[in-house]
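Fig. S4 source data, part A: sequence.
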Amino acid sequence: MSAQHIDQSEQTLELLFQYMYRKRPDIGSISFDMLRSVADAADVYQMDAFGERFRAHPMDLSDVVDEAALRTIGTDVETALQALGRRHSSPGSILYREKWIHIMRDANDPPVIMHKGGLQSCNLWYTYYRSVTNDLRNFGPGEVQEGRSVFGRYRSSLKNCTHCKIRADNWARAFEAAPGRMPTFGSVVSETVP
């Protein structure tokens, strides 16, 4: 193996070594740029090639890739592809984002709670729905917890309509549960590989 010039930061290499020796850091607290740096370093140093030597300490970066993919969902495709870089962009990443779009489409279509007189919704609902969906438009799975504040921010616009408040609560629960329905990036990619 030829000598490599080390371009990675100390923090990047420290995280890479933690993965090599199964000292899994909390990836939720690591920035996207740092996750990408760790994945790039694994590519640069051909960590896969060490499989035989490190059989006792196999390196599995799948959780890093899954976390990185989750963090790109709330952005537009061009920004996500730039953030992931060409090496980590693939048809799988596009399909992964599509899964999230379908999950959110379902979550953001709360079932109707019939009002007195057979009305499906009152005027209060339309104002509330429009305001909430506008704020939630670019949320990704990692930002779902912030969604609770969005639902709460507009709740007063429902005034005393208990039917709309029940529907809003159902919607908030479905929105918060959406990340749990998201498959891992690895599982989506494996579905696309023939």
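Fig. S4 source data, part B ends here. The longest helix spans residues 162-181.
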